[in-house]
Specification:
Blueprint (H helix, E strand, L loop, with lengths): L6 H23 L25
Length: about 55
Amino acid sequence: MPQLNPNPWFSIMLLTWFTFSLLIQPKLLSLTLTNNPTNKVTTTKPTPWTWPWT
């Protein structure tokens, strides 16, 4: 069964992970977010819904 032979696929997987780790990941991590996350504080309290059948 060729699926059980890791000889060609293991090297391809390692090469892919090294490429991602060394080349792509630093480029993605260097990008800055356009919208910085902020804590949203709600000051108004929601009013409860009045159900017509109660």
